[in-house]
Amino acid sequence: MMNKTVITIIFISIFIFIAESSSSKSFYHTKFLSLSDNTSIANHLFILTRRPHVAGTLANAETASYVQSTLISNQIPSHFASYEVSLTYPVSRSLNLTDPSSSSIKQFSLRQEIYKGDPYANVANEILPTFHAYAKSGSVSGSAVYANYGRVEDFATLKQIGVNVSGNIVLARYGQIFRGDIVQNAQEAGAIGVVIYTDKKDYGGGGGGGDGGDKRWFPDGKWMPPSGVQVGSVFKGSGDPTTTGWASVEGCERLTEEEVMKTGDVPLIPSLPVSWKDGEIILNSIDGPVVNGDWQGGEDASVYKVGPGPGILNLHYQGKEEIRTIHNVIGIIEGSEEPDRYVILGNHRDAWTFGAVDPNSGTAALLELTERLGKLQKQGWRPRRTIVFCSWDAEEYGLIGSTEWVEENRETLISRAVAYLNVDVAVYGKGFHASSTPQLDELILQASQLVPDPDNSSQTVYDAWLQSKSKAVLGRLGGGGSDYKAFVQHIGVPSVDMITGDGGYPVYHSMYDDFVWMKKFGDPMFKRHVAVASVWGLVALRLADEEILPFNYLHYADELQKSAEDLKVELSGKDINLKPLLNSIDGLRLASIKINDQKEAYLKRNKRKDSFKARELNDRLMMAERAFTDSDGLPSRPWSKHLIYAPSKHNGYGSKSFPGIHDAIEMAKQMNTKELWKSVQHEVWRVSRAIKHASLVLNGKLT
Q: Which of 456-461's residues contact partners 24+ apart within 8 Å by CB, and which partners?
C-alpha cells in the first residue's frame, strides 16, 4: 500500500491536473486511471505473440484483424489503411571461415537454437532465416577485419594504425549505432562485405552481468543465448524504398532498382547477422594489431585483434524483393467540438519473430488503453478533439506503414494534427523514459506525477524517473528509430515517444523475444505495462480535452539556446556568425512568453469564453512546430525537412540539434575549403529563418 504522504501528493497533483483540464472532462480523466487492467494487457500480449509475424505475412495480417476486432469491441470504429510495398525476404545464405594454415573450413549453421521446454518450438519453423532486410545479394570472399562497432571513428582508427579494409570483409559488433550505418561505413571504407555479430559483452552477460551479477542466458536468465541472432533492416531511409516521398498505393509510380541504388539508402555490399558464438570463432581467426579500450570484449573474452585475417570469410546472401500488402489499423473516436483536430496515438505491430517486447508490449498497452476509453464512452465521456489510434505495419523494415500513411495524408495532417504520441517498445524492464519535442515536456512530467510507480508503490512514476540517471530529463526526437520520424521530421507535428526499461534488452530482434521472456524478466506482473498505458492515456486526454492546448514553447527556446551554446564551442576559432541564430532564439522566447500570457488571460475569463479566440490560440500553438520544417529539406536528405531534429548522418539512432548545420560542419572540417565553410554559414541562416517563422506563427500577426 502507498504511504499517506505519497497518497496526499498524488491527490494534490490530480487536483492541479484537473484544474488545468476542462472542468467538464476532469471526472473522466480521474476515472481513466482507476480502470487499469494488467490481466487484460497480459492476455493481449499472449495472443499477439503466439506466432512469428513478419510484415507482409498471413500471420501479421491476422494480428491486424485482432487489433481491429478489439477496437470495434470497445466502440471505436476502425478500418484498414493498406499499402502495396516493396519488402525483402531471404532465399539463401551461407557463411564459412577458412583457416589458410590448415585449409580447414568452418561452416556456420546460421541457426538460432530451440531451448529445452520452449513452448513455441512447434512454430519455430515459421521464423525467417536470419538475415538483413534490403541487404545486397551477392557472394564475396576476403580476409576478416575486426572493426569494433563499425562507427566512423572505428574505421578512422583502423586507417590510423595501418589496417587496410579495402577488399576485405568487416566483422563488426552490434551496439552504439544503427546496423545500416555499420554497413555503409564499411562500404565507404572499401569493404566488400559485412558480418555483424552479437557480442557477449553487450548482450550475453559477459560485460559483468546485470540484476545482481546474474550472467545466465535465456531461458534461465535474461541474456541472449550463444546462438541468438539480432536480425533487422539495413535500409537507411524511411518508407517504401521505391516510393520515396509519396504513398505506395496500388498502381503508383515506383523507382527502378537502379534509381533506388542511387538514393544511397540501400547498401551496395552484402551483409549477414550472426550470433556471439559464431562471432567469437571468427574473432579467434584474426591476428594482427591489438586495439585497447572499448574494442575489447568482456571480462572472460580473449584478446580481440583487428587483422586482416589470416581467417578468410566466404559470405553468400541471396534475397528476393516482393511487392506485398501491409495493413495499418486506424481507429477513431470522433471529437464532439473540434472533430477536425487530431490527437494521434501510434504503435507498430509487426515483429521479426514473436515480438513480445518489440513491439507488442506497446500494442498490448494500446489495446488496454482503448478498453479504458471505451468504458469512459459508456459513462458519457466524449473527447473535445478527435483521438486517432494507429497500429502500424512494416515498421521493422524502415518505418514503412507510418511513413506511407503520413505521405498519403500529408496535407490533412499538416492542417489538422495536434500531436503524435508514440510507444514502440512499452516495456522491457523497470524505469520510465520519454522523449519529445520540447513544447510537450511539461505535460509529460505532469502526467507522470499522477501514475504510481509499478516497482515501488510508495512513489510515482515521476519520482522514480527523477531518481534515475536521466533525472527526469526528456530526450529529443532527432533519431530515426521509430514511427514518430515521419510526423516530426517530415511534416513537423509535435510528438512524444515513451518507454519503460533501462539499459537495453539482450534478446532484441531474436527468436527469444517471446512471452516467456517478458513474463520472467520484462514485466512479471504486467504492472509496468499499465503504468505506460496510464501516462500515455493521460497525455492524450489532456491534449484531446483541454480547451487551450497545454503547449509551452518556452521549453523549446531553452533547448535551442543550449544547442546554440554547444555550437559556439564547436565553432570556436571559425569565422561563422551565430548572431542570426541567437537573435532568432531570443525572438522565440519573447513570442513564447507572449502566447503564454494570452493563454492565461483567456483561461481567467471563466464563462466569458470565446470559441473563435480559443481556436485561434490553438492553431498558433499547433502550427508553430510546422515552421521548423523547410520544403527543401536537409542537404542530400530532402525527405527530412525538420531543421531542428533529424538523425545523425552516420547513425540513424543518434541525433544532434541543427542536423543541417552539423552535417555542413563535418564536411567543412574534412575538406577545409572556403566554399564548404560558407555552406555552414548558409545552414545557420536557414535554421535562423525557420525559428523566426515559428515566432511569427506564435505571435499570430502579419509583419
A: 457/1, 457/2, 458/2, 458/3, 458/6, 459/6, 460/6, 460/9, 460/10, 460/13, 461/432, 461/531, 461/535
What is the C-alpha to C-alpha distance for residues 410 and 417, in angstroms, rounded to an integer?
Answer: 10
How far is 538 from 434, CA to CA, in rounded Å?
A: 14
Q: Are strands 232-233 and 169-173 parallel, antiparallel or unpaired?
A: unpaired
Output the DSSP codes for 649-674: TTEEEEEEESHHHHHHHHHHHHH--H
H/E element, 319: strand 312-333
Whole-number CA gyration radius for the chain: 25
Strand partners, 317: 93, 138
Taking only the tens place, the pLDDT of each residue in 616-666 is 999 999 999 999 999 999 998 999 999 999 987 777 677 778 999 999 999
User: Catalytic pick from 280, 371, 395, 396?
Assistant: 395
Decide if pLDDT at 18 tops 50: no
What's the predicted TM-score (pTM) here?
0.94
DSSP 8-class letter at 126? G
Pinpoint the alpha helices (H) of 26-141: 26-34, 38-48, 58-73
pLDDT, residue 61, reads 98
CA 88 from centre of chain: 21
Tell me the C-alpha distance between 703 and 694, whole Å.
13
CATH topology of domain 88-319: Glucose Oxidase; domain 1 (3.50.30)
Q: At CA 304, angle to CA 299 and CA 308, rounded to 5?
A: 170
b/e per residue 158-173 (b: at least 16 CB within 10 A): beeeebebeebbbbbb
Specify the pLDDT at position 12: 47
Q: Taking Cα atoms as reference points, which of 452, 506, 444 lies closest to residue 203? A: 506
HEC assignment per residue over 252-298: CCCCCHHHHHHCCCCCCCCEEEECHHHHHHHHCCECCCECCHHHCCC
Label residue 607 by pLDDT band (50, 70, 90): low
What distances in angstroms separate CA 682 from CA 83, 136, 201, 280, 533, one per listed residue? Answer: 39, 36, 44, 48, 43
C-alpha cell at 300: 572472460
DSSP 634: B
Q: How many CA atoms lie within 13 A of 619 on its CB side?
A: 12
Q: How far is the C-alpha of 528 from the C-alpha of 589, rounded, in Å? A: 37
pLDDT value at 388 more than 90: yes
Contact 173, 196 (CB under 8 A): yes
How distant, in Å, are the alpha carbons of 37, 577, 654, 669 from that of 69?
19, 57, 37, 55
Taking only the tens place, the pLDDT of each residue in 484-528 is 999 999 999 999 999 999 877 999 999 999 999 999 999 999 999
Query: Per-residue pLDDT averaged across 328-354, rounded?
Result: 98
CATH topology of domain 4-86+323-545: Aminopeptidase (3.40.630)
Q: Are 186 and 208 a contacting pair, CB within 8 Å?
A: no
Q: What is the mean pLDDT of the chain?
A: 94
- Examine the residue annotation and report whether 395 is marked as an active-site residue of this protein: yes
- Surface-to-core class of residue 5, CB atoms within 10 Å of its CB (0-12 exposed, 13-18 middle, 19+ buried): exposed
The candidate with the shortest Cα–Cα distance to 518, out of 391, 681, 358, is: 358
- DSSP letter for each residue of 188-235: HTT-SEEEEE--HHHHSSTTS-BTTTB-PBTTTSSBPPTT----EE--
Task: Give the CATH fold of the 554-699 domain.
Answer: Transcription Elongation Factor S-II; Chain A (1.20.930)
Question: What are the DSSP E strand ranges found in 600-643?
Answer: none
pLDDT greater than 70 at residue 13? no
| The C-alpha cell that represents 216 in the structure block | 545466465
The conformation of residue 459, written as its DSSP 8-state character, comes to: S
Residue type at position 177: I
| Domain range list for the chain | 4-86+323-545, 88-319, 554-699
